[in-house]
Design brief:
Blueprint (H helix, E strand, L loop, with lengths): L14 H14 L7 H9 L20 E4 L16 E4 L1 H7 L21 E4 L2 E4 L2 H10 L4 H29 L7 H16 L8 H10 L1 H12 L5 H13 L4
Antiparallel strand pairs: 1-2, 3-4
Helix pairs in contact: 5-6, 5-7, 5-8, 7-9
C-alpha cells in the first residue's frame, strides 16, 4: 500500500449529476457509481492497482471493483462523492464488506500515510497502530493465496538480481576505467530493477522495502559511492523508493 493523491474529480461528475445519482441510488439502490467515466478516473489515480494490496487490476482475473471507503449502506449520501470511491480487487473489497470506517477506521490511502500504520517484513504486513491492524484484517493484506505468495515470488527474484549485480560489479571496480562498458551495463540493469519499484508498478511498496532492507543492496550502494558511480538518476530512483517503502 502506498500513499495516493486524489486528482480533481472528473468534469462529468458535476454537482448536479452527483445529486441526481445519489438520489437515484437512495430511490432504487442501483449501481450509479459504475458509469465508465467514474470507473476510469478511479482506476487512474491508483496507477491501475488495487489501492490496498497493489495487485494489478483488470489483469490475471483481478477485475476492479469500486470500493466505497465509507460504505454506501451506512453513508448513502457518499455513494458517488469524489474521494469516497477507491479502486479495489474483489478479495479486499469483499473482506472489507460493510465495515463502518467512521466508527472503526482503517488506512485510507487517499488521506493517511500508510507508513504511520504499517510496515512490511518477510513479505507480510505488520501493524504499528490499531488502525494498521484493522487494515490488515479488513483488506486481506496477508492472505497467503492471493497476495503473500505473489509478494514472496517477486521479492525473492529482486534479492537474487541484487546479489548477482553486486557480485559481478565488485571485481570490475578494481579498475573502473578499463571495465567502463561492463560497469555501465550492470548499472543499467540495476536502474531497470529500481524502476520496477516506482509507484506506478505492481507491489511497489514490497519491492521498495526489500531493496532498501537488503544487505547486498547496502554493499552495492557503498561500492557505487566509493567509485563515484552514483548519479542523479539513481538519486531520483532512491527518492521514489523512500516514498513507496514500508520499513519498520
Amino acid at each position: 500500500m502506498i500513499k495516493l493523491n486524489l486528482p480533481a474529480r472528473p468534469i462529468e461528475l458535476t454537482d448536479e449529476l452527483t445529486l441526481e445519482l445519489t438520489n437515484q441510488y437512495i430511490r432504487d439502490n442501483s449501481d450509479v457509481w459504475n458509469r465508465k467515466f467514474i470507473r476510469d478516473a478511479v482506476l487512474a489515480f491508483s496507477h491501475n492497482k488495487c489501492c490496498y494490496t497493489e495487485c494489478r487490476l483488470n489483469s490475471e482475473s483481478k477485475y476492479m471493483e469500486v470500493d466505497h471507503f465509507h460504505p454506501k449502506i451506512h453513508f448513502p449520501k457518499d455513494v458517488v462523492r469524489w474521494g469516497n470511491l477507491l479502486p479495489s480487487c474483489k478479495k479486499s473489497n469483499t473482506t472489507k464488506g460493510e465495515l463502518n470506517t467512521k466508527l472503526y477506521p482503517i488506512v485510507n490511502p487517499l488521506v493517511d500515510s500508510p507508513k504511520d500504520h504499517l510496515y512490511i517484513k518477510n513479505f507480510r504486513f505488520y501493524h504499528k497502530s490499531i488502525i494498521g491492524r484493522r487494515t490488515i484484517d479488513y483488506t486481506a493484506l496477508n492472505d497467503r493465496k492471493h497476495f503473500v505468495g505473489k509478494r514472496f515470488k517477486i521479492g525473492m527474484k529482486v534479492i537474487e538480481i541484487i546479489e548477482e549485480i553486486r557480485l559481478n560489479l565488485e571485481p570490475l571496480c578494481i579498475d573502473v576505467f578499463s571495465n567502463e562498458l561492463q560497469i555501465k551495463r550492470l548499472l543499467n540493469s540495476y536502474k531497470n530493477l529500481l524502476a520496477e519499484a516506482k509507484r506506478e508498478e505492481e507491489y511497489s511498496a514490497t519491492i521498495s522495502t526489500i531493496i532498501l532492507s537488503d544487505d547486498n543492496n547496502n554493499i552495492l550502494l557503498n561500492i557505487l559511492a566509493e567509485n563515484d558511480l552514483l548519479d542523479d538518476e539513481l538519486e531520483a530512483f532512491y527518492h521514489e523508493l523512500e516514498y513507496c517503502s514500508l520499513i519498520d
